[in-house]
Amino acid sequence: MKTVFNDYNNSLDSQDQIICDSLATIIDRELNYTENKIWHSHPVWFIDGNPIVGYSKQKAGIRLMFWSGASFDEDRLTVGTGKFKDASIFYNSVEEISESDLKKWIKKSEEIQWDYKNIVKKKGKLDRLK
């Protein structure tokens, strides 16, 4: 895991830190070829400059978000309410994380992508890449 992600995770309380460390470990292992960085103040993984998955601390818990997750057709992911194609799940304990579900969603994030990289250039219009 990148040092900058360690800094983010270590800034959280111990329960949230354990959740984030677990998520980062699994995501790093499955997306080991991708770029990852702190983006909009939280850890995000990118494929060809396009955001794929990230997590952040929110009032409801640790939110794991897939930018193209609305197209995954997964019951456990809650589709965002805005104009974007995101979907997410909240975790409040590490025991809630299903590694098999997470691996399945990561695989789908590689196969199903909307073009967030060029959303500003296209004036808010999202096109499907894959």
How would you sum up this structure, described in words?
This protein is α+β, with helices and mostly antiparallel strands. It has a single domain (3-111), classed as Aspartate Aminotransferase, domain 1 (Alpha-Beta Complex), CATH 3.90.1150.200. The chain starts with a helix and ends in a 19-residue tail after the last helix. It is built from three helices and six strands. The protein has a six-stranded antiparallel β-sheet.
Short description:
The protein has three helices and six strands. By secondary structure, it is of the alpha+beta class. The chain has a single domain, classed as Alpha-Beta Complex (Aspartate Aminotransferase, domain 1).
N-end to C-end Cα span: 27 Å
Inertia-based shape: globular
CATH class identity: Alpha Beta
- Sheet-strand content, in percent, reads 25-35%
Radius of gyration: 14 Å
Category by helix and strand content: alpha+beta
- Low-pLDDT parts are none
How many β-strand runs?
6
Task: Outline the secondary-structure elements.
Layout: H1 3-10, H2 14-30, E1 35-39, E2 42-47, E3 50-58, E4 61-66, E5 78-79, E6 87-91, H3 99-111
Antiparallel strand pairs: 1-2, 2-3, 3-4, 4-6, 5-6
Helix pairs in contact: 1-2
Task: Provide key terms for this protein.
single chain; 130 residues; alpha+beta; Aspartate Aminotransferase, domain 1; six-stranded antiparallel β-sheet; 3 helices; 25% strand; globular
